[in-house]
From TrEMBL:
UniProt keyword Membrane present: yes
Pfam families: DoxX (PF07681)
Protein name (database record): DoxX family protein
Compartments (UniProt record): Cell membrane
Biological source species: Terrimonas rubra
Record key words, sorted: Cell membrane, Membrane, Transmembrane, Transmembrane helix
UniProt xrefs under InterPro entries: DoxX, DoxX-like_oxidoreductase
TM spans (from-to): 7-26, 46-67, 74-95, 107-124
UniProt family annotation: Belongs to the DoxX family.
Membrane topology: Multi-pass membrane protein
Length: 130
């Protein structure tokens, strides 16, 4: 059964994940992220395959959100990647992505909250039965 309560959020997040995931596949960003960042911070020699796995997971998650299959699994994997990104990349830059700073955590935090909302469209209270 389709959950129309989250349709708009699922579409928008799918677009964001597709663009974010696929852009790096065509502009060498994935290779740079794997070789020049992940390998350098201790993931060598698996930095490049890990970078590709992350980007491919974004594309797969986008598809899952659009067809409304495996939504919770897709959200959980994406949330894990976003949280890891917060601590490895964005946190040292502060809160703001633009404006008051750059490359901060605010966008990741927003996406995490939206993904949790998609996972639990009736709210956490009903899900946990508090």
């Amino acid at each position: 059964m389709r959950n129309n309560n989250t349709l708009l959020l699922r579409i928008i997040v799918a677009i964001i994940l597709l663009i974010h995931g696929m852009a790096g596949m065509f502009n060498n960003g994935v290779n740079d992220f794997g070789n020049l960042y992940l390998n350098e911070v201790g993931f060598a020699p698996i930095g490049l395959p890990l970078a590709w796995a992350i980007k491919i997971s974004h594309v797969i998650a986008a598809i899952c959100l659009l067809v409304e299959k495996y939504v919770k699994a897709a959200c959980l994997v994406t949330i894990a990647i976003l949280i890891t990104g917060i601590f490895m990349v964005h946190l040292p830059h502060g809160w703001y992505v633009v404006g008051g700073g750059s490359n901060g955590v605010e966008f990741n935090v927003l996406l995490i909250v939206v993904l949790v909302t998609i996972m639990f469209p009736d709210g956490l209270r009903k899900t946990i039965k508090v």
